[in-house]
Specification:
Layout lengths: L4 H20 L4 H36 L4 H28 L11 E7 L4 H21 L2 E9 L5 E9 L3 H5 L4 E7 L10 E11 L13 E6 L7 H5 L3 E6 L4 E5 L5 H25 L3 H4 L11 E6 L4 E4 L4 E3 L2 H5 L4 H21 L1
Parallel strand pairs: 4-9
Antiparallel strand pairs: 1-3, 1-5, 2-3, 4-5, 6-7, 7-8, 9-10, 10-11
Helix pairs in contact: 1-2, 2-3
Protein name: Peptide chain release factor 1
Family: Belongs to the prokaryotic/mitochondrial release factor family.
Pfam family, one: PCRF
């Protein structure tokens, strides 16, 4: 894809303008925050655009030297090298110029729920959580459980966690959907392979300014927590249930030792789910465009199968099978799948932009 010279100049001029504003020392408050954000987003684009422009100009200068017999051989060699590199740089620039999801830079709420398969599904939900936890550690992210419902056999019926760090949602957003596992459960004496499933939802976590929640729209109930957690959990009204009256959304949290902490976590989950609902409503008008993407993020869509007997993982959206199940389920190996999904999404959006 060839980027017009006029577009390269526009990028350079806009970046120079931002640099001058940032250096002026006259920006304050929200104006400075917005300018800083714009500068950070444009800087990598401007850098690649400058490389593309410089390569084109160098090719033009070298082509003028072809008429000189003494310089011709050297010029041809350098032109060939530049023309080999230029398409890669132009594609990199085209990808950098693709419209960004405003939520890509945000932290995320990771929700994993056991699906069909009973106890085995709960165990698999636990495996998935640990996979994401270790992958997050590789990325330098922090994972903090917000609420959980443990299974008696191990694993989780449901677990919700907050994942913070650089570019969390951008990397994890394609993980939403149904994850299926095929393996012989530990409780299976006949050695038969069972198929179970768990659902994963990755929701961008908003800033407080992204979602305004008024006290009059909330119904807050306290009750006595149940389940494991020791004597304290079962003898105080520390559990919180928050109902958002306009939407009917209900969030509960009982894992913290204090009512205040549980309320804080429940509000965090509520704010995230309201933000996700707002995003869904906004993107509804762009449904046709979203069909070009790797996945819609629909939690009912089966996206991946983990086949333990054959040691393989298949992502059904892009038709990619990797014989690396141990590395993937361990966490670090998930990066190869994540990168492939991002690359496929970028390729499809580039193709759509070129049409």
């Amino acid at each position: 894809m060839t980027i017009p010279a006029e577009r390269l100049d526009q990028i350079a001029n806009r970046f120079a303008e931002l640099e001058a504003r940032m250096a002026s020392g006259t920006l304050e408050g929200e104006e400075f925050v917005q300018a800083s954000r714009d500068y950070a987003e444009l800087e990598p684009v401007a850098k690649i655009a400058a490389e593309v422009k410089a390569a084109r100009e160098e090719i033009s200068e070298l082509e003028d030297m072809l008429a000189d017999p003494e310089m011709k051989a050297m010029a041809e060699e350098e032109i060939a090298a530049l023309k080999k590199h230029l398409p890669e740089a132009e594609r990199e620039l085209a990808i950098a110029m693709l419209p960004r999801d405003s939520a890509d830079s945000k932290p995320a709420m990771l929700e994993i729920r056991a699906g069909t398969g009973g106890d085995e599904a709960a165990l698999f939900a636990g495996d998935l959580y640990r996979m994401y936890e270790r992958f997050a550690a590789e990325q330098g992210w922090k994972v903090e459980p917000v609420s959980m419902s443990a299974s008696e056999v191990g694993g989780f019926k449901e677990i919700v966690a907050n994942v913070t760090g650089s570019g969390v949602f951008a990397k994890l957003k394609f993980e939403s959907g149904v994850h299926r596992v095929q393996r012989v459960p530990e409780t299976e004496s006949g050695g038969r392979i069972h198929t179970s499933a768990a659902t994963v939802a990755v929701l961008p976590e908003p800033d407080e300014v992204d979602v305004q929640i008024e006290d009059k729209d909330l119904k807050i109930d306290t009750y006595r927590a149940s389940g494991a957690g020791g004597q304290h959990v079962n003898t105080t009204d520390s559990a919180i249930r928050i109902t958002h009256l306009p939407t009917g959304l209900v969030v509960t949290c009982q894992d913290g030792r204090s009512q205040h902490k549980n309320k804080e976590k429940a509000m965090q989950v509520l704010r995230t789910r309201l933000y996700d609902a707002q995003r869904e409503a906004t993107q509804g008008a762009e449904a046709e465009a979203r069909k070009a993407m790797v996945g819609s993020g629909d939690r009912s869509e089966r996206i991946r199968t983990y086949n333990f007997p054959q040691g393989r993982v298949t992502d059904h959206r892009i038709g990619l099978t990797l014989q690396k199940l141990p590395q993937i389920i361990a966490g670090p190996g998930l990066g190869e799948l994540v990168d492939a999904l991002i690359a496929e999404d970028e390729a499809k959006r580039l193709a759509a932009m070129a049409e």
